[in-house]
Amino acid sequence: MKFSGKNVLVTGGSRGIGAEICKVLASFGLKVWINYRSNPKLADDLKAQIEADGGSAAVVKFDATNEEDFIAAINLIIQSDGELSYLVNNAGITNDKLALRMSVDDFNSVIDANLKSAFIGCKEALKVMSKKRFGSVVNVASIVGEMGNAGQTNYSASKGGMIAMSKSFAKEGASRNVRFNSATPGFIATDMTDALSDEIKANYSANIPLKRFGEAKEVATAIAFLLSDYSSYITGDTLKINGGLYM
Ligand code: NAP
């Protein structure tokens, strides 16, 4: 995979899909800024692992829903490296309930964590990448943002919003050579899906044409493609990584 840029910020990078994205991008020679919110040990251990494998990494703590802290982190990266080449808005949460039991607070918390955080990241990335006339951003949305899911009205709204928002950013960034795309993973084996019961997991797997949950690394490699020079003529698009569950 070819990358003209030199560094990347991955929000929620210390575990799950985010950690795999960090490892894969470091293996392609990018300096990886691992964002974490709550567990410094996980982030430090990942940094050590990447460095032991010959890569370059740094750790940056912030809550991605906090605009001031997100901007401060990007400023720190620019001060350190002189630029920010790539951003992956990966941080996300679920708070599942049937709609009739979902409070407005339940709804807003997921919109904030998933959609608002990505908006802040996209906006700041566009600002700094425009100056260099180069950059690529991937928003980690979800299959649920494309097809909906019972119990996830908040999550589906946030992820569908990310897909639509990426297209608008793509239109605003194109004249400055800044690309924005979405990735929509299906069901991937991480802490997030560990919360599902074995029965629900078996039901989902039975309906997936490839008959299994995806691995975080399979999401990470697809996202690496979307960030890289190999996808230089792709912007505003949505890459499905779902084993064929939604085509
Ligand atoms: P995960 O294992 O639950 O990890 C989520 C990560 O996001 C954690 O590192 C978490 O940090 C971080 N995070 C959450 N809110 C944050 C905030 N406000 N600021 C900074 N970091 C924050 O989830 P995952 O399965 O790896 O999911 C990663 C992304 O893929 C999410 O956007 C998710 O919606 C999406 N996705 C996942 C699946 C799946 O099947 N797993 C499918 C489709 C899409 P803490 O450690 O501090 O909590």
Automatic annotation (TrEMBL):
EC supergroup of this enzyme: oxidoreductase
Reaction catalysis annotation: a (3R)-hydroxyacyl-[ACP] + NADP(+) = a 3-oxoacyl-[ACP] + NADPH + H(+)
PROSITE patterns linked to this entry: ADH_SHORT
Gene3D superfamilies the record matches: NAD(P)-binding Rossmann-like Domain
Keyword terms, alphabetized: Fatty acid biosynthesis, Fatty acid metabolism, Lipid biosynthesis, Lipid metabolism, NADP, Oxidoreductase
Domain of life: Bacteria
Pathway linked to the protein: Lipid metabolism; fatty acid biosynthesis
InterPro entries: 3oxo_ACP_reduc (IPR011284), KR_dom (IPR057326), NAD(P)-bd_dom_sf (IPR036291), Sc_DH/Rdtase_CS (IPR020904), SDR (IPR050259), SDR_fam (IPR002347)
Signal peptide: none
Listed GO MF terms: 3-oxoacyl-[acyl-carrier-protein] reductase (NADPH) activity
Occurrences of domain Ketoreductase (ranges): 6-191
EC number(s) reported in the record: 1.1.1.100
Subunit composition and interactions: Homotetramer.
Role description: Catalyzes the NADPH-dependent reduction of beta-ketoacyl-ACP substrates to beta-hydroxyacyl-ACP products, the first reductive step in the elongation cycle of fatty acid biosynthesis.
Similarity comment: family membership: Belongs to the short-chain dehydrogenases/reductases (SDR) family.
Record protein name field: 3-oxoacyl-[acyl-carrier-protein] reductase
Organism: Campylobacter vicugnae
